[in-house]
Design goal:
Chain A is mainly beta. Chain A is built from no helices and eleven strands. Helix content of chain A is 0%, strand content 56%. The model of chain A has no long low-confidence stretch (mean pLDDT 93). The mean pLDDT of chain B is 95.
Chain lengths: 111, 113
């Protein structure tokens, strides 16, 4: 079966660091993506990992361990505008490029 | 450049009515995907096009759902005889090719009464 797990909700304080975890069990793996989605808006692309390790992009970093079926998104220097849902998605093996999404983690940043 | 656009943004339909949802992908993007997102959930895959060819429709929930992309650009998702359980946000995404990152449109919020 296909399963992607993320915490439902997290709360953090402005200026802090937060780590959002994602574990996955899929029949094929061809990359893991993180998207940010504000309420009522389109998901916007944040990061992509296909090899093990850390990818850093400004205040956002994403980590992948394929052997553990595990990823995390790290957000530093949190700002109020970071309050949103964060979606973890796994892309299937070649031939079908669909994404399998988790339910999303709703992050609330408090002043 | 312009992103993925979808229309209408909101649609209210009476149960049993047919609806058509439109997606304009980013110019030059070969791959196009449709997803359904229920409230509080992540998007779920419906169907995938490469140019005009529908290569995967395994996610379409019933034969009431039909998608087309006749000229390999604009796509339409049609839902016949809508039911209340069809109420959701329908997201369209496009990518340069299947392997590239998908970019999403703002979605069409469908409410079936």
């Amino acid at each position: 079966g296909q399963n992607i797990d993320q915490p439902t909700e997290m709360t953090a304080t402005e200026g802090a660091i937060v780590q959002i975890n994602c574990t996955y069990q899929t029949s094929g793996f061809n990359g893991l993506f993180w998207y940010q989605q504000h309420a009522g808006e389109a998901p916007t692309f944040l990061s992509y990992n296909v090899l093990d390790g850390l990818e850093e992009k400004g205040r956002f970093s994403s980590f992948l361990s394929r052997s553990k079926g595990y990823s995390y998104l790290l957000l530093k220097e949190l700002q109020m505008k970071d309050s949103a849902s964060y979606l973890c998605a796994v892309r299937g093996t070649s031939g079908t490029y669909k994404y399998i999404f988790g339910t999303g983690t709703r992050l609330k940043v408090l002043a | 450049g312009a992103g993925v656009s979808q229309s209408p943004r909101y649609k209210v339909a009476k149960r049993g009515q047919d609806v058509a949802l439109r997606c304009d992908p980013i110019s030059g993007h070969v791959s196009l995907f449709w997803y359904q997102q229920a409230l509080g959930q992540g998007p779920e895959f419906l169907t995938y096009f490469q140019n005009e060819a529908q290569l995967d429709k395994s996610g379409l929930p019933s034969d009431r759902f039909f998608a087309e992309r006749p000229e390999g650009s604009v796509s339409t998702l049609k839902i016949q005889r809508t039911q209340q359980e069809d109420s959701a946000v329908y997201l369209c995404a496009s990518s340069k090719s299947g392997r590239e990152t998908q970019y999403f449109g703002p979605g069409t919020r469908l409410l079936v009464l």
